[in-house]
Amino acid sequence: MSHILAPVDLEERIGWGVNSLLGSLDPTQRHMPYWALRWNRGLGSFYHAGAWDWCHDVARVLHGLHCASQWVHVDVEQPVWEDLASLQMELFDDEYLPGCPRDTDGERFVNLHNIREASHAFRALIARGHNEAEEYARKMVRKMLTAVDRQGKIDLAQLPGTVDNYTWHPHMEGRAVDALLRLYRVNGDDACIELASRVSRYALEHCFGPVGALLPAAGLHGHSINALVAGMADLARFSADGELMQRVSDVYRNALPFYHSTFGWSAESLGKPMTVRGEANNTGDLLRAALLLGEAGFPEHYEEAERILRSHLLPSQILDVDDLADEEAARDADDLRVSRLRGGFSFPTPSDLLAREEDNFVTTDVTSGALDGLCQARAYTITSDAHSRRVNLLVSSEGHGVRVESQLPCNGALQICWDPGRPVFVRVPSWVQGSIVIVDAEGEARAAPAVNGYLLLDSGTEAGACDLRFDISEHETQEIVMFEHFHIRWRGDQIIAMDPPRDLPVFRPMFPRREGR
Fold first, then answer.
1. pLDDT at residue 298 above 80?
2. Above 90 in pLDDT, residue 450?
3. Is the distance from CB of 426 to CB of 466 less than 8 angstroms?
4. Phi and psi at residue 238, in whole multiples of 5°?
5. What is the pLDDT of residues 462-499, one digit of tens each?
6. What is the Cα–Cα distance from 415 to 107, expressed in whole angstroms?
7. CB of 249 closer than 8 Å to CB of 204
8. Whole-angstrom Cα distance, residue 268 to residue 338?
9. Under a CB-based contact definition with an 8 Å cutoff, are residues 183 and 223 in contact?
10. Spatial strand order in the sheet of 402-406
């Protein structure tokens, strides 16, 4: 837990996520991903989950590695890439939908849940110059368009008989909106935008109420709902559709809190009984939605994004493994479970890495989704448009000719320097009381208030540098999450201590308890 007060290094955290993804691969099965590594009253073993390792997790690994490669060096040997690419492409036959043999009878099946995964995988492969992936991506999207009318309603009779087990729209094709937008950005296929628009239209009509309330048709899978909302925000951004962005903001504000905490914990399942078992890739998608809404002109969502990042997503990454040990008789790196799992994610409670004494400790698809969230956060730390450059998340970062060194949450201090260009703004959190003190390169200090949540540092016409200083107050809150009371101590946006309910088991807590409790 020593890292709680340490400054955030997002690129280091992304690198650890890559470590866990690569550690999840089974070299004895063409690098087929393991589903998870169990915690069984102590460190358990990696295990496979059958067909879903292939039709779901191969794509997830490709997606996570591709996202990370935009920010860190991803050292993957060519045979590993080739195995993953082959496994992904082998899911497709002349139906042009992703399917594989069912565990029970060996018959081919297609689950539309994995349209999102396949779109993500195609994006990763196309970016690496895989021509067959580009061809199959176009055919898959067009196959789906034949079955989805202009209002987004799906007609399963228009799809092959191998498609089975349809549940709710968000749990199936609806969750693919974000992946379709990302796929479009590498292949330029307008059919991706058309399909994303149709399924978004259906979701807003049937899954969410007029002011964004969650309706039964949204289903029970928190991750799929969050992915859909993040995707619709990206679609609104792409199409410059202010009305759609407002609808998405309403959904974010009025539907998602039903199964989220204020700091980003997100329930795995909305089914009964609802429990405090969360899912870190839900949090990754919630973070992505908040970032997109922040960019759309709602700076309060950037503050929520930083709180989600600092106080749940990062603490739920498994880094503290000093009490665990690799096998003394390990033959090679493939046996080193502790070394391989570090940097992974799974199903945390608001306060603990484990919800149950026998649970997954790291889970491959969850790690990929959480890593996606970390990469998106890195992309939005500093943004730029035609008018200005903005520091949105107060973590150390560099981009668009602006460099930030952050001492948060230990100290309220930022060192910022910038190259000539457009004006430079810095987001000021609402918890900062009074004016921020700006100390320029000559040591002269002045107080400056924030305007609309941002502080103007400089017109940007010349290079410059300054320090920002402000007080960080600590306070305590109580929050009810899934009918359980949690007592929380904060330092700015950072949770520094948390007391879970007395009757909630404690296995591997993410935070120390409050002092004197």
1. yes
2. no
3. no
4. -60, -45
5. 899 999 999 998 999 999 999 999 999 999 999 999 99
6. 60
7. no
8. 25
9. no
10. 397-399, 402-406, 413-418, 464-469, 436-440, 445-448
